[in-house]
Design goal:
Blueprint (H helix, E strand, L loop, with lengths): L2 H6 L6 H11 L6 E8 L2 E6 L5 E5 L8 E4 L4 E15 L2 E13 L9 E7 L3 E6 L5 H7 L7 E4 L5 E5 L1 H8 L10 E7 L2 E6 L4 E5 L5 E6 L3 E2 L8 E2 L3 E6 L5 E5 L10 E6 L6 E7 L2 E6 L5 E5 L17 E6 L5 E8 L5 E3 L5 E5 L7 E6 L3
Antiparallel strand pairs: 1-27, 2-3, 3-5, 4-5, 5-6, 7-8, 8-9, 9-10, 11-12, 12-13, 13-14, 15-16, 17-18, 18-19, 19-20, 21-22, 22-23, 23-24, 25-26, 26-27
């Protein structure tokens, strides 16, 4: 499933309702502070061992080529505006530039560096998004798009493996051939990677070998809008303090409120639903107390079919081990990532599909 369809599914209907509902809810939420700003379509966050905060910026595309993606029927313009920025000792700086990016002609809803996982204090793994099949990638002229890359502390990078090509050759989940490497979990033995286009969780070894770890079940569409079956769309993966792998789900169109879940994944076994009742889970992060921080890109009142979600309706929730939910932040504008620092502070991106206006917010440890 192409996440760019989610990025652009905003309409004016319900705006007044959204303003009223979320203005009151915001009074009770945790206080937050803007610690990074001016970001280009910010995506994944990661905290290094030394406490530095890194953010992957999907960029704003570029001068082209500009082509129509046959999967979404929208024009995408290619460039090398993707980047990695760092917050270190109170100073924000862009430490890696020139990474692949494609976006709408106005630079919004970009796809590029999607997530970052640190290797010590400088090196990192980064997913490069795509959101399409082989014909789209070839026409775009972006062979690194749809790959997992490794960054050296110097900022130099190289492709570890071509994730999109694995999907094109194997298509383990069946259905349309589509790849969009999104969330990742970097560990000493390799990388767990959620491909939101392929609807699969992969493991990538240090030598680049890919193994399919888990596929996720489609769900019956309970509404009269859209297809009869809804795609599962895994977007994020984390490991809790007890060693368990969890995967966050963003269901496909029509993005029914309450249908998305967090899955518990044991390699070699079918995934099991750990906690449900969400809409558009875009990222999850493990808290030091065994809880999960769950970030939804947007929400909507139960029963609402159109629009799929309301403006400024992103939400951060802390989920206890027994699935008890506590709202931390509301009224977020298309947030895309959450990370937890060593001190328990929580970091969240805001204005996540906007060029030059993205932010990172900090919430003190609860």
């Amino acid at each position: 499933m192409d996440l760019k369809r989610l990025w652009r599914c905003t309409g004016p209907v319900g705006s007044l309702l959204a303003l009223g509902a979320f203005a009151s809810a915001a009074l009770a939420q945790a206080p937050s502070t803007v610690v990074m700003s001016g970001l280009d379509n910010p995506r994944g966050l990661a905290v290094a061992a030394n406490g530095a905060l890194y953010v992957a910026e999907a960029g704003h595309g570029g001068a082209g080529p500009c082509i129509v993606n046959p999967g979404t029927n929208e024009t995408r313009c290619y460039g090398t505006s993707g980047a990695i920025s760092r917050l270190w000792r109170g100073q924000q700086s862009r430490i890696v530039e020139g990474l692949p990016s494609h976006a709408l002609p106005d630079g919004s809803s970009a796809s590029g560096p999607n997530d970052i996982g640190m290797l010590g204090n400088g090196g990192a793994y980064v997913t490069l998004g795509l959101g399409g099949g082989p014909a789209f990638r070839e026409a775009l002229g972006c062979n690194p798009c749809g790959s997992l890359i490794r960054l050296a502390p110097s900022g130099q990078w190289q492709v570890v493996t071509d994730v999109a090509q694995y999907e094109y050759a194997n298509n383990p989940a069946g259905g349309p051939v589509d790849s969009n490497p999104f969330g990742l979990l970097a560990e000493p033995g390799g990388v767990f990677l959620a491909d939101a286009g392929a609807n699969a969780l992969y493991h990538v070894a240090a030598n680049g070998a890919i193994e399919t770890v888990s596929l996720f079940p489609s769900q019956a569409n309970p509404t009269p809008v859209g297809p009869p079956m809804i795609e599962p769309v895994p977007t994020s993966v984390t490991r809790a303090t007890d060693g368990t792998l969890y995967v966050g789900q963003l269901t496909g169109f029509p993005f029914v409120q309450g249908l998305a879940s967090i899955f518990r994944v044991v390699p070699g076994q079918d995934p099991e639903v750990h906690c449900s009742g969400f809409k558009t889970i875009i990222d999850i992060a493990a808290g030091p107390d065994g809880s999960l921080y769950v970030l939804e890109n947007a929400t909507s009142p139960p029963g609402m079919l159109l629009p799929p979600f309301l403006p400024n309706s992103g939400k951060l929730t802390r989920v206890a081990a027994n699935c008890e939910k506590t709202t931390i932040l509301t009224a977020l504008d298309r947030p895309t990532s959450v990370a937890v620092g060593a001190d328990g502070a929580v970091y969240v991106t805001n204005h996540g599909i906007t060029p030059g206006a993205g932010q990172v917010l900090r919430v003190a440890a609860p």
